[in-house]
Amino acid sequence: MSYFIGVDVSSKCLDVSLTPSGPLEKYENNSKGIKGFLKRIKGLSISLVAFESSGAYERDLLYALLDNKVPCAVLNPKQVRDFAKAKGILAKTDRLDAKVISHFAEVMNPEKHREISQEEKNIEALVRRRRQLVGMLVQEKNRLELAAEKVKKSIQAMIDILDKNIKAIEKEIQENIDKDPELKSKQELLMEIKGIGEVVSRSLLSDIPELGKVGNKQIAALTGLAPMHRESGTMKGRRRTGRGRQHIKGYLFTSVMSIIQRAGELRDFYDRLRANKKDKMLAIVATMRKLIIAANAKLKKAGAATAPAPT
Question: What are phi and psi of 134, to 5 degrees?
């Protein structure tokens, strides 16, 4: 028997279903629990272990499975939910569980996750930490503006410490990229695009490993920039973008705000939208979508050019 195992990941637990109809097993989402799960499935004929993308909660499980050569896939939650609703497995308000994920994996057999280098793991952790520190820095700067004179010195000292830490982490991220020829090449290609500098390129490499490997519609959806219709019965609404990876949208927004200040292809695209009476924010989002699609196409073209010829 070949197993398509579904795992429902939360911050504290891993709910596991070895088959769509089997009983649920529960493990702690920590090193001890993951080791217990790996011991449980050792010796089984595993086609796939599948689980949804859930921020960072699935990261340790993913790394452990890859390190132990267990085939696995990180799923888009919306695709799993749409599949389940179409199959009549769950209603609109029901929550997904491990059995639903197992059934999706068995029927759809999604693409297996690629290997992740140590440099990529390091970069992901460092980029996440930089994001946390930048958030703390913004908070401290906001406090400084309204602070009483008595505490301004303390706040400024914290700002200086955060600035120093952010610069040190940025240096370490770049050192890890420089160690990996593939990542270094990708970064150089990304930075050829106007509006994408070192900070944005590092975040794209870390947080969108699918970049250059999927189609334009998929990359727009992953970054939350694919327009979605809001229709229900006879009611129709304006098209919105999905949630996607919110911090990536923040980086792309900053890039586009820089882009529209100077001449170039994307500035011309933005100007045409505004000339056609498009709302300013809609024009910005459309330019963000065009930017990430351009990055995806550039890496995809480079990958195709360097791929070995079929035999």
Answer: -65, -40
